[in-house]
Amino acid sequence: MVELIEQCSECVSLLGDYLEGSLSRERTTALETHLSRCMPCITFVRTYKKTTVLARETLAAQMPRELVTSLQQFLKGAIPGFTCDSKKGDCGSSAQQPDSSSDTKKS
Ligand SMILES: [Zn+2]
Hints:
By secondary structure, this protein is an all-alpha fold. The chain has a domain at 8-79. It has helices at 8-20, 25-35, 39-50, 56-62, 65-78. Helix 1 (8-20) packs across helix 2 (25-35). The N and C termini lie far apart (92 Å).
């Protein structure tokens, strides 16, 4: 008895384990069943296997919006440090300059 995957987002979330071969037999069957009838996912997996992170942007342009979002969320969870927003990019050290003019000695 196999629990079928109806959502592409679930398919994507399992993809990492699937490609690593660490997915359970039942999940693998469910995933392959979904992949056998879902053209966007078929195309995605084929390209995903061949290419890597380099083609991510190209892939994103061809993928359904739902799939893109799911993949990004998946990558965020799977890869430490992976993030799409660069809000924390500006974390320069704010060097403080002590204004100790009261301790200056003139001779
Ligand atoms: Zn799908």
